[in-house]
Request: fold
Amino acid sequence: MSVPLAETYEVTAYTAGPESTGKTPGHPAYGVTASGARVREGTTAACPPELPFGTRIHIAGVGERTCLDRGGRIKGRKLDVYIADRSEALRFGRKQALVSVKLP
Reply:
């Protein structure tokens, strides 16, 4: 078994709130990902369409995540990681990180 090749991705944090998704807590799709799963901190990543739902990724300095969501601006080597707390998400910001992709 070979080790997945790591490539540099732009990684940004997002929340379930209106600042990231446009949805408020009263919206029926609030906290629901494009795959239908609920967002979970430490688990959920929004990935480009070429990475199918269920794909496991390892982000250097962040850890393991699963592709469960999409986003209009997530194309190519871009990912979003879900962070529940808005302040923490803002502190995380946007960064370059090595990412290993493990297709399902």
